[in-house]
């Protein structure tokens, strides 16, 4: 979006609410007008990946609410929380320009008052991958997503496939707790060289930014090799990890083949699968994933 | 309620639904007629304590739904779960006779499908007392209550003060997760000799049933002594425990003075307080509690 477009959008003055009571007041008037409501939960620092969620939500419902809340409970490292980018003015302008109707931007004390003491835990799908590397992360995600969904009670909520394990964790918790909402996954938006958009990309040096695209290339090539069903998956994945090392990634948390539905470990692509990776480059932790669809025949 | 009343009530045929989809269908038509909805969650084996909840719900909303579900997740002992009384025909008749409009009686597979893996944990208020003696109990309660509330989305839900720690746990989780419902506590219903009504009372022998009233007498006398502010609370409580032993209680899990709001330990009644007890008689675990209000002056 051009600077002029941002300025014109911010002149439309996207309404912002900061309390649950005000949010509910807005939702009530939407409901009274018979409108359907979609929610897009974000942590701000919006980029085109988020805006794709907004546009998807727009296609599903007559009214779109975005939330911006940097949730301390889902950060396992204080330095990561402190470094997480925040820019509400830019977020607000981009949301308005992409068809969002309301921004919910609560403070920490609104979400977690002093005596707050409840948490939501999803088992099984949260255990491997991010769950193994970021203790407490998914309990933080599950708790805040439960709250955001119950604060707004939308018809639909949209989450990016970029955080694939988060997406299926949210789908599982919504089913298990009977939250009356549809959870839509939205395809990852990528740069021209394939790097998945992420608020963390801006923490990369210019030189590391160039090398970062290798994460996507490794996922793409490994997924294609796995899809053929030829060669051991362990060999294909070992080659992928070695290639990331050569590209300058300092550490690889995982490069793993999993069942798409429940993240069970897979050695053969005998059902819908997902290839997922997390790796460190230039002190920044990048994650990405791709579907693996068995070749026909 | 007389046998004749039960029979006449059962002739009115209280509607029963067993799936969340059917429950939601009923709630939707109530909402379309502009009715307000109250939920009374129970584990069945209904007695007048439950019926007081139904009558309270009736006074608050135009429509009352009762749920009957013996929740396996809140039992810490398999023998306790197996022995828990079940009598749907009697429950249904009593509900109809007391102004309930709909019974939701799901099976275990409806509430917890095979891959169910989510749980809700409330900290702080769940840690002492029942939480210390029944591992996992309150996570089971918090999870099933969250589900029941989100399945029906009532305006009000009623819980008995008999399970006081459960009541404040539910109030805490509803506030923390932003579930849009009011939680009402309803005063404990007692037999003529003071014994709190409980589905477990019917497991007592006739002789133990007589002695069981001493639990209430000890709570009443100890609460009165604590309210005066004279004498050490530890002495008063030790005397109460000794009296339960003399009455034939085999074991006392606790007889404790706690802050009414958050169950923090108290030695002086310097704010609204609650005296809570759990003790074993004739192999049956009985619990009860009373408010402790400081004497004026």
From TrEMBL, chains A, B:
Domain of life (superkingdom): Bacteria
Xref: SUPFAM superfamilies: Nucleotidylyl transferase
Gene3D superfamilies noted in UniProt: HUPs, Pantoate-beta-alanine ligase, C-terminal domain
Annotated residues for binding of beta-alanine: 74
One Gene Ontology term from the biological process aspect of the record: pantothenate biosynthetic process
Catalyzed reaction equations: (R)-pantoate + beta-alanine + ATP = (R)-pantothenate + AMP + diphosphate + H(+)
Binding locations of ATP: 43-50, 160-163, 189, 197-200
Record's GO cellular component terms: cytosol
Compartments (UniProt record): Cytoplasm
Pathway assigned in UniProt: Cofactor biosynthesis; (R)-pantothenate biosynthesis; (R)-pantothenate from (R)-pantoate and beta-alanine: step 1/1
One function term, GO molecular function aspect: pantoate-beta-alanine ligase activity
Residues that, per the record, bind (R)-pantoate: 74, 166
Active-site positions on this chain: 50 (proton donor)
Protein role: Catalyzes the condensation of pantoate with beta-alanine in an ATP-dependent reaction via a pantoyl-adenylate intermediate.
Family, similarity comment: Belongs to the pantothenate synthetase family.
Protein name: Pantothenate synthetase
Gene: panC
